[in-house]
What we know:
Radius of gyration: 21 Å
Order of helices and strands: HHHEEEEEHEHEHEHEHHEHEHE
Helix content: 25-40%
Structural class: alpha/beta
Bound molecules: S-adenosyl-L-homocysteine, iron/sulfur cluster
Amino acid sequence: xxxxxIHNLSLPELTSLLVEWGEPxxxxxxxxxxxxxNYWGNPKDFSNLPVALHQKLAKSLEFNTLxxxxxxxxxxxxxxKTLFQLHDGKAIETVLMKYDPSTTLHRTQLDDxxxxxxxxxxxxxxxCAMGCVFCATGQMGFKRHLSSxxxxxxxxYFARLLHDQGEVVTNVVLMGMGEPFxxxxxxxxxxxxxNDPDGFNCGSRRFTISTVGLVPAIRQFTAEKRQxxxxxxxxxxxxxxxxxxxxxxxxxxxxxxxxxxxxxVAATGRRITFEWALVNGVNDTPDQAQLLASKLKGLLCHVxxxxxxxxxxxxxxxxxYKHAAxxxxxxxxxxxxCTVRLPRGVDIQAGCGQLESTG
Length: 359
Ligand code: SAH
Ligand code: SF4
């Protein structure tokens, strides 16, 4: 990604650039507010700037490097998936989910902000290097990292779309294509940019990062004491089973991962979420649930179980409603809160783990 993509610039970087151009520094703030408060996406939108500066912006900076090429909407209208073409011809997918309380099996388990949530699921890489066997992104292999601006621009595209409908992006989850902790610096820079109270002003607590369990990055994240929510893709607490599903487990086995999670909770006082894709007869059995309950005992956490979504490269089947309910019951009885999410957007291949692109 060329450095001239406007969303790659922080406010100080934008300010230095404007000063280099011989402009007063307050122009940078005007551009920043145009971008992140008014959702302007083209130089000519900047009615707060002199025309000569429009032209300079158009000539020197790239505004639209993410080109939406295909948009699909699920049949219930609650999930929208857009494929963006990037400057090098590669492509990524981003998913908007409109929530209402009926999306969980048990309404009582939905947090108070559940109703009316507009959650955006953004990508951090083209493809993924982690190779989880049941994930379409993993199945396509790693192509490249996204720049911070490419992450920011996914959010701004949907923010603009919702704004036109009188709505806002309420939550952002880094659960699209790619492993955010493998692209740590760009992911954090993107969140920092979107956090700015004088800009997009989306608070850290509205972000959730999901990681496959890269222990050194979890430790770095812990040390930084950020307010961003952390989710760990666990799927099994049996080393040989987890390694067969998530090859990265060989490098960072369960006990090492759970130790990093405990240290995170101890250092931050924040609850951690564990994700668990329920695969029929593989990790949705009472034995697996009991083992999980014993491993998580005493930890401030929540288990988010999702029936497996189908992908081309994996023959496992989704859990049944009955097994999912039993799984949840075993955890809940052991004092571990567990939500089973109904799959969403699967008719447009926008469910967890179904995102892929040919780029
Ligand atoms: N790389 C990160 C975030 C992207 S994947 C991670 O792995 O955590 C987002 C979530 O979808 C992860 O919990 C992942 O394990 C899960 N997932 C992947 N493939 C899936 C599938 N086929 N069905 C259900 N969940 C899946
Ligand atoms: Fe990568 Fe996450 Fe998919 Fe694993 S589940 S291959 S880490 S995107």
